[in-house]
Design a protein that fits this description.
Strand 1, helix 2 and strand 2 form a beta-alpha-beta unit. This protein has an 8-stranded parallel β-sheet with strand order 2-1-10-7-6-5-4-3. The protein has a two-stranded antiparallel sheet with strand order 8-9. 41% of the residues lie in helices and 16% in strands. By secondary structure, the protein is of the alpha/beta class. It has a single domain, classed as TIM Barrel (Alpha-Beta Barrel), CATH 3.20.20.70.
Length: 280
């Protein structure tokens, strides 16, 4: 199956629009693991096992592994997810953005070394920085479009949102992802949950591409507004899939030995909230 097929299948099988982000910080681990970077795999695998039937995707953030020299643990985790949660696609959150042979190496890292189903990319060096990833048929690539962080306004400031006759930056990226760049239907977009109006506009310009939506949970994004703006279906069939990411609120739901069961309860709560929004 292609990544898009995987995402839709996981949504249907698990009844979920939720993506769990795997951002392991040893300093925030439960007390019996706290501060021990050698336990990154153990912590993340426990979260995966507790939530695999509640999500439509997992999103490991590569920096949280690389900062601790834990790439081997990430490889082991990817293998674990493919083996025990094969129905759930894996989005490697790497935000790569380079050209030529360097981009080819990053693509090889994501899809061959780690075996990811999709990867996040920065599109700001143009199509030749994206093209190497599209050579991997069936794999997905999410382009940064309108991010949820406050610094997103540095390049897309509020006062430039409505310049007559000039598309906003995120609108231009959305149109490229829906159109000429999306050669094999492999592209998606990253749009922050803190900007529901922009999600709605992205959906107008890119009516079928999948959206990865961070910012729900600890960042305070409006989950209901997010789903209403981004997720679309016709006659019960999803035509515009979304993966609404929550990381810290689920990973660190408890500081005790019950951290995995607490993560499951928080994932259940978030999944239900998203599903209720989709049914309105």
């Amino acid at each position: 199956m292609t990544f898009l097929d995987q995402l839709r299948t996981a949504e249907r099988q698990n009844g979920s629009l939720l993506c769990v982000g795997l951002d392991p910080e040893p300093a925030k681990f439960p007390e019996h693991l706290r501060g021990d970077a050698s336990k990154i795999y153990d912590f993340c695998a426990a979260i995966v096992d507790a939530t695999a039937d509640l999500v439509n995707s997992f999103k490991p953030q590569i920096a949280y592994f690389a900062a601790h020299g834990a790439e081997a643990q990430l490889e082991k985790l990817m293998e674990h997810m493919r083996r025990t949660a094969s129905q759930v696609p894996i989005i490697l959150d790497a935000k790569r953005g380079d050209i030529g042979s360097t981009a080819e190496q990053y693509a090889k890292e994501a899809f061959e070394r780690y075996g990811a189903d999709a990867v996040t990319l920065s599109p700001f060096m143009g199509f030749d920085s994206v093209a190497p990833y599209l050579k991997y048929y069936g794999k997905g690539a999410f382009l940064l479009c309108r991010t949820s962080n406050p610094g997103g306004d540095d390049f897309q400031p509020q006062h430039l949102r409505d310049v007559p006759g000039q598309p906003r930056l995120y609108e231009h990226i959305a149109a490229l992802a829906q159109g000429p760049w999306n050669l094999n239907g492999q592209l998606g977009l990253v749009v922050g949950a803190t900007y529901p109006a922009e999600i709605e506009r992205v959906r107008e310009l890119a009516p079928t591409v999948p959206l990865l939506i961070p910012g729900v949970g600890a960042q305070g994004g409006d989950a209901v507004a997010t789903v209403k703006a981004g997720w679309k279906s016709v006659n019960g069939e999803t035509i515009a899939p979304i993966a609404v990411n929550s990381s810290r609120a689920i990973l660190y739901a408890s500081a005790g030995p019950d951290f995995a069961s607490a993560a499951r309860l928080e994932a259940l709560r978030t999944r239900e909230m998203l599903q209720n929004a989709a049914s309105v």
